[in-house]
């Protein structure tokens, strides 16, 4: 059974830092692109970042470029999101998600399994 | 960036109804479009990818169609478990974008 479990959420002050972790199990983690998607409670979904299978390629939404870093440790079956210089508008539930696509087939960028989400609240 | 617009934003319906949700994108994404359903307090679940390919386990009352810039999700006979919010998402190009959502409610 595929499982994605986020941890590391919480309350942080504007300008602060936080690292989210996502522990993956039930599938060959190193064979998949992985993603972070966020959602302000009661609002829509916003894609945040993507990383390819070996971590050599990363993509970000413009609003987090230069502040957030996505990386992975395939030996630990884990995905991470390092968030620096946090802003009030980064407040959201952050989901870790698996991407079933294959880059060579131009099918990366959608999400077939999601974690339960981790709430990040940025407030003074 | 490719913008994604869904309509309607709210869809009152009853069990047994046939419902259709429309998704429009700002430029040609071929068939690189996915549909998700989200129940309150839960993560989204993937229903359809490639504009029309049902994910394993998704009931056949769901269908997707379209290509280019206009897409539809149809539920042929709405069941009680189908109520929730539906999102479409383009994955032709980064940045990936979702539609604003369609809440299907009684």
Explain what you see.
- The complex is a heterodimer of chains A (124) and B (106).
- With 124 residues, chain A is mainly β.
- Chain A is built from no helices and eleven strands.
- Chain A has strands at 3-7, 10-12, 18-25, 33-39, 45-51, 58-60, 68-73, 78-83, 92-99, 113-114, 118-122.
- In chain A, strands 2, 4, 5, 6, 9, 10 and 11 form a seven-stranded mixed β-sheet that branches.
- Chain A is globular and about 45 Å long.
- Chain B is 0% helix and 49% strand.
- Chain B has no helices and eleven strands.
- In chain B, a hairpin with a 6-residue loop joins strand 9 (84-90) and strand 10.
- With 106 residues, chain B is mainly beta.
- Chain B has strands at residues 4-7, 10-12, 19-25, 33-38, 45-49, 53-54, 62-67, 70-75, 84-90, 97-98, 102-105.
- In chain B, strands 2, 4, 5, 6, 9, 10 and 11 form a seven-stranded mixed β-sheet that branches. A four-stranded antiparallel β-sheet of chain B has the order 1-3-8-7, with no helix packed on it.
- Chains A and B meet through strand 5 of A and strand 4, strand 5 and strand 10 of B.
């Amino acid at each position: 059974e595929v499982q994605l479990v986020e941890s590391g959420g919480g309350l942080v002050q504007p300008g602060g830092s936080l690292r989210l972790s996502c522990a993956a199990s039930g599938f060959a983690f190193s064979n998949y692109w992985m993603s972070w998607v966020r959602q302000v409670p009661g609002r829509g979904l916003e894609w945040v970042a993507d990383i390819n299978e070996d971590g050599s390629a990363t993509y970000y939404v413009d609003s987090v470029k230069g502040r957030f870093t996505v990386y992975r440790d395939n030996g630990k079956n884990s995905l991470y999101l390092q968030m620096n210089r946090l802003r009030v508008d980064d407040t959201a539930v952050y989901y870790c998600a698996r991407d079933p696509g294959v880059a060579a087939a131009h099918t990366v960028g959608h999400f077939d399994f999601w974690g339960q989400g981790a709430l990040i609240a940025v407030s003074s | 960036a490719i913008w994604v617009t869904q309509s309607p934003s709210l869809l009152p319906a009853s069990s047994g109804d046939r419902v259709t949700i429309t998704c429009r994108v700002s430029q040609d994404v071929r068939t690189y479009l996915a549909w998700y359903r989200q129940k309150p307090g839960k993560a989204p679940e993937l229903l359809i990818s490639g504009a029309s390919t049902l994910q394993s386990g998704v009931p056949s009352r769901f269908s997707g169609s379209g290509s280019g810039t206009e897409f539809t999700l149809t539920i042929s006979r709405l069941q009680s478990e189908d109520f929730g919010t539906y999102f479409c998402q383009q994955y032709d190009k980064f940045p990936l974008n979702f539609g604003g959502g369609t809440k299907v409610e009684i």
